[in-house]
Task: inverse folding
């Protein structure tokens, strides 16, 4: 809607999909949780199904804009918009979400990793709609963390990071780290994930991870912050997300 | 010429049927078609919060909603929250605590604060600030607004505890 108000978009035809039947459902399956494209941010934040299996989503939604926006905004809208500093695209990439799409050519499913192509540009064609998103289950005992820094509460983040990890015998057995606001799209940082595998999250490993995050992100300068400041923040925020995930992970 | 569409919207308890262009924002429908100018228009892209109204009982930005999307829905604007001589609880607290100066943000503040009261969760002043963070005020420095909402919330929680009915809005 802001893009229409700004005349950045000038569609010949606008279709309201918000009243499609079953578009606002959250369903729990064996493999994971499927969220309809029309599920509103407020419903994600309060969902008991997510709280039980993927509490990182409930937690992260508090950072999305403000109450009145969360009452109206939807997961499908956020993912299709593809803002590089938005929380739901980051969660989709971090949690390896499957994005279900339908159009005249039929149904298809895209991996979140392949869905975000550039700022505000996704794999979605003009004649397709995003119908639902499946978040696969996490391994038992997974720890998680999401952290962001914004200039004001509810603003788009200058930098944000999400992490999920499992701990076995006191070392990291599996780890994911994804960042937003510091690149053209939200993305995982596979080199850092590889470096962390098999290590304990101690001060030395933490310092190395923070340093490497700063080397591997490509932030831009804008009115809000310089690229260098964002690079600095990326390290801070990735460190905090991993701190939280390590603290929550149960040693199996 | 864009084809007009029939819509029926309930605003402050009255039902209005109109034929409107699909592009018409809810703010323009309320202010220009219905003459309810209490809903203010600030930034027109969802940031300032001045146009916040209640849509089916929860806060929403009227500037980010097309009127056709509100077809069949129930809207409450500041005009429906109370009147001179019969202020709502929140309006009374805003007056008592001097929670407004120019008043531009006030209709939106009241809509957001209404949802806070309806949620009926005990909140600290910090949490109230967070909940109000989507409504900008350039006069008060927010302090008095937080006092007003905090006191109204305490009274609402008290009335729920004692089972008495209280006009929350």
Result:
């Amino acid at each position: 809607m802001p893009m229409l108000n700004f005349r950045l978009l000038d569609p010949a035809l606008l279709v309201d999909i918000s009243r499609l039947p079953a578009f606002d459902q959250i369903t729990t399956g064996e493999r994971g949780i499927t969220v309809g494209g029309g599920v509103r941010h407020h419903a994600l934040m309060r969902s008991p199904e997510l709280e039980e299996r993927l509490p990182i989503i409930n937690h992260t939604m508090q950072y999305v804009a403000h109450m009145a926006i969360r009452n109206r905004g939807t997961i499908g809208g956020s993912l299709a918009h593809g803002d590089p500093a938005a929380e739901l695209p980051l969660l989709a990439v971090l949690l390896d979400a499957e994005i279900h799409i339908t159009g005249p050519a039929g149904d298809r499913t895209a991996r979140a990793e392949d869905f975000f192509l550039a700022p505000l540009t996704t794999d979605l064609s003009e004649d397709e709609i995003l119908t639902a998103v499946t978040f696969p289950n996490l391994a038992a005992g997974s720890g998680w963390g999401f952290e962001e820094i914004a200039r004001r509460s509810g603003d788009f983040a200058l930098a944000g990071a999400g992490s999920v990890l499992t701990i076995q015998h006191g070392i990291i057995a599996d780890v994911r780290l994804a960042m937003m606001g510091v690149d053209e799209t939200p993305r995982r940082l596979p080199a850092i994930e590889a470096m962390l595998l098999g290590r304990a999250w101690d001060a030395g490993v933490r310092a190395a991870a923070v340093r490497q995050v700063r080397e591997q992100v490509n932030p831009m300068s804008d009115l809000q912050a310089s690229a260098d400041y964002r690079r600095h923040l990326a390290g801070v925020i990735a460190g905090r997300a991993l701190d939280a995930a390590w603290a929550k992970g149960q040693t199996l | 010429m864009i084809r007009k569409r029939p819509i029926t919207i309930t605003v402050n308890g009255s039902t209005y049927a109109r034929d409107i262009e699909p592009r018409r924002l809810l703010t323009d429908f309320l202010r220009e078609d219905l003459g309810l100018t209490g809903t203010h228009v600030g930034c027109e892209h969802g940031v300032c919060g001045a146009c916040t109204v209640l849509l089916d009982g929860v806060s929403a930005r009227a500037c980010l909603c097309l009127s056709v999307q509100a077809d069949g829905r129930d809207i409450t604007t500041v005009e429906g929250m109370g009147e001179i001589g019969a202020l709502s609880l929140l309006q009374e607290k805003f007056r008592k605590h001097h929670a407004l100066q120019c008043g531009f943000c006030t209709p939106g503040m009241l809509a957001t604060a209404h949802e806070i009261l309806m949620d009926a969760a005990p909140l600290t002043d910090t949490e109230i600030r967070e909940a109000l963070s989507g409504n900008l005020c350039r006069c008060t420095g927010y302090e008095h607004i937080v006092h007003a909402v905090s006191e109204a919330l305490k009274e609402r929680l008290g009335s729920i505890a004692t089972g008495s009915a209280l006009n929350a809005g």
About this structure: The radius of gyration of chain B is 16 Å. Chain B has five helices and five strands. Chain B has a mean pLDDT of 95.
